[in-house]
Write a structure and sequence with these properties.
Blueprint: E1 2-8, H1 12-23, E2 28-32, E3 47-48, H2 62-69, E4 76-78, H3 83-96, H4 99-113, H5 116-126, E5 133-134, E6 138-142, H6 145-157, E7 165-168, H7 170-176, E8 186-190, E9 194-196, H8 199-212, E10 216-219, E11 226-228, E12 231-236, E13 239-248, H9 254-260, E14 268-279, E15 289-291, E16 295-300, E17 303-307, E18 310-312, H10 322-331, E19 337-340, E20 346-352, E21 359-362, E22 368-372, H11 378-394
Parallel strand pairs: 1-2, 1-13, 2-10, 4-18, 6-15, 13-22
Antiparallel strand pairs: 3-9, 5-9, 6-8, 7-8, 11-12, 12-13, 14-17, 14-19, 14-20, 15-16, 16-17, 21-22
Helix pairs in contact: 1-8, 1-11, 5-11
């Protein structure tokens, strides 16, 4: 087989890259070892976070770090055995989270995330996926009045970045979500973001759009990518594919490919878990809700999805469901969670970089491109990433300055 571009990785990011390249007349083969959207893209909270200009920073407070050292917090856990390998990337993560550096990161994020809704809107319309989208925003709820006040102040400070929100007192929150227990001091309603009822189904809808544009989807192993003269070769279920260019969009497995090709980036993963629950009889939940305790409960097609925060472990280590069990213990008294839906607890790994920004653009070899490292914002930034990378690859003017996301920022 031959193609203009081989896109390695059929998560939501890879599929969006493939769509945008196919729309620009490139012959594209999308390659994944599993189903499109069946990996990390499968298990998120379904948020397209227009408000998410402030990525998760490494804690700077000594008191907070001391609490995390006990390894019993809901929002973040780790494996002691993984820390030696993670020490370097986490040290850089801590350094990039210092206030002066973090303020610049927020500016970079804001210019990119401003395109999150508009770019998804175009694809959603073309993919006939509107039935999967809810456009009423989502909620952050707070148990501590002090935390609520601090987060409301932060929300006001970010208003000049084009973010819209509505503060809610306990009565206002009860009117919006009457099934919640009265344990919260208040909430912030982020009114602009969209939520997705089934992230896997959205990726599949985007895949059908890609195929309708003439694109091909093949099963294959992206780690077999190798240079072949002035082209790239990768093994698929239909035999070897030779393409003029290749895009590495394999999420947490992108590092495997790049290392084999002579480039090591300071990647690390934040693992996350989810489980589904039936709503309690006579109760329900309309909005996706982030609890300051460190989890999200979101209404999905399969039920109420409880998703965890971050777990720092080796990417390929066996699942450790202790974190989601702890989340369930805290969530049950406050949220309308009924019986758990039958099925295994899902686990996925978010690809992260020390400066919290994705890596998008040309790699270190001619004809090789990357689109990875989106951490918690893979779904949010997928469509905008596809547009940005396709523009760079085809010589169009990019919709945003690509420099903050270049691979070369890591030396």
């Amino acid at each position: 087989m031959k193609a203009d571009v081989a896109v390695l990785g059929a998560g939501i990011v890879g599929v969006c890259v493939a769509i945008h390249l196919a729309e620009r007349g490139r012959s594209v083969v999308l390659i994944d070892r599993g189903e499109a959207g069946g990996g990390t893209s499968f298990g998120n909270a379904g948020l397209i976070q227009r408000e998410g200009v402030a990525p998760y920073a490494f804690p700077r407070s000594l008191l907070r770090l001391a609490r995390y050292a006990g390894n019993r917090q809901i929002d973040m856990r780790f494996a002691w055995s993984a820390l030696p390998a993670l020490a370097g990337p986490l040290a850089r993560y801590w350094w990039r989270s210092r206030p002066a550096s973090y303020r610049r990161i927020v500016v970079d994020y804001a210019q990119f995330i401003a395109h999150s809704l508009s770019e998804h809107a175009a694809l959603i319309e073309q993919a006939f996926a509107d039935h999967l989208i809810e456009r009423s925003g989502w909620l952050e709820v707070f148990r501590s009045p002090a935390t609520l006040a601090a987060e409301r102040a932060a929300a006001e400070e970010r208003a000049p970045l084009g973010l819209e929100h509505r503060p809610l007192d306990p009565d206002g929150l009860a009117r919006m979500e009457p099934a919640l227990a009265p344990v919260f001091a208040g909430a912030i309603h982020w009114t602009q973001p969209w939520t997705v009822r089934d992230p896997f189904a959205l990726t599949q809808a985007y895949l059908r759009l890609f195929k309708s544009l003439g694109g091909q989807f093949r099963r294959g192993d992206g780690t077999t990518l190798r240079a072949d003269g002035g082209a790239w070769e990768v093994q698929t279920d239909a035999g070897p594919l030779v393409a003029r260019e290749a895009v590495v969009a394999m999420g947490p497995w992108s590092d495997d490919v790049l290392r084999r090709l002579g480039r090591r980036l300071p990647f690390f993963v934040k693992r996350g878990y989810h489980a589904h629950y039936r709503p309690r009889e006579g109760a329900g939940q309309r909005f996706a809700i982030h609890d300051e305790a460190g989890f999200v409960v979101a209404p999905m097609a399969a039920g109420l999805r409880l998703t965890t925060g971050a777990q720092f472990m080796h990417r390929d280590a066996p699942p450790d469901p202790a974190q989601i069990a702890a989340c369930e213990t805290v969530a049950r008294p406050a949220f309308p969670l009924g019986d758990r839906v039958a099925g295994a607890i899902w686990m996925g790994s978010r690809p992260c970089t020390p400066d919290m920004k994705p890596v998008i653009g040309p790699a270190h070899r001619p004809g090789l491109w990357v689109a990875t490292g989106h951490a918690h914002h893979g779904l949010t930034l997928a469509a905008a990433t596809g547009r940005l990378l396709a523009a760079m690859m085809t010589g169009e003017a990019p919709p945003v300055d690509p420099a903050p996301y270049a691979m070369g920022r890591f030396r």
